[in-house]
């Protein structure tokens, strides 16, 4: 669009000048200006499409034979504005986990201080986790989910508001369209069998709409087990560089190993608005904590 606007702004120059001598003298300079404008427009288009990058856009050059990882193409200033609240932690970057389902890991999404704050708020109020009753839309006990958990109020304090804003910026889903944060705790031997996050009942879809996406934020490290697994993902999990570190159950489909501060975003609905059956996911049994 910048190139087109410039060429329109340059048109009066072609009609300028009085006599024939003025026109002949103006043609070479007009052609040069037009060529420069076209070159600028082509350069801007290449930059916008990502086919061309400015110096310093890539990092990690020379690490093996693979391509260097580009810096995240997100609105970095939005996240950097919360650094004082987050505390110092590794540089955030996004890893594409899968396209079926659409799943991404945002590394270093939370600081250690933020993780500890959420744990401290939730610990006194933990209760046995429940599942949605598809017949009534209410909650019920189930052996498929053995964790404990609780919900925090939306905007409960400054740190939670900062985290909620960061989630909204990352997902491009407004804060007011999200649920309150739910904090879950898994003891050794606890699990959540594969399930869908989207609703199967009319009650919840009529009263709050369908769940389109989920962000899981890991508040602690786990030495063995505890992965989030997508057993129906269309991907070759053995190609993962961390394949040998996964538990046996987590080697089916694709999995994410818990790491304090990381966040997993996955979409339960496809871009066309239909439900995505490949978003089936579960929490693997925790074998051992990293204490």
From TrEMBL:
Topology relative to the membrane: Single-pass type II membrane protein
Region listing for Disordered, in residue ranges: 1-24
Top-level class of the enzyme under EC nomenclature: oxidoreductase
Cofactor entry: L-ascorbate
EC number, UniProt record: 1.14.11.2
UniProt keywords, alphabetically: Dioxygenase, Glycoprotein, Iron, Membrane, Metal-binding, Oxidoreductase, Signal-anchor, Transmembrane, Transmembrane helix
Reaction equations catalysed: L-prolyl-[collagen] + 2-oxoglutarate + O2 = trans-4-hydroxy-L-prolyl-[collagen] + succinate + CO2
Gene Ontology cellular component terms for the protein in this record: endoplasmic reticulum membrane
Low complexity: compositionally biased ranges: 1-11
Methyltransferase found in the keyword field: no
Record's keyword annotation contains Transcription regulation: no
Biased composition (Gly residues): 12-23
GO MF annotations, alphabetized: iron ion binding; L-ascorbic acid binding; procollagen-proline 4-dioxygenase activity
Coiled coil: none
Residue intervals of the Fe2OG dioxygenase domain: 177-291
Primary residence: endoplasmic reticulum
Transmembrane segments: 31-54
Location relative to the cell: Endoplasmic reticulum membrane
Top-level taxon in the UniProt lineage: Eukaryota
Family as reported in the entry's similarity comment: Belongs to the P4HA family.
Name of protein: procollagen-proline 4-dioxygenase
Organism per entry: Eleusine coracana subsp. coracana
Lineage: Eukaryota, Viridiplantae, Streptophyta, Embryophyta, Tracheophyta
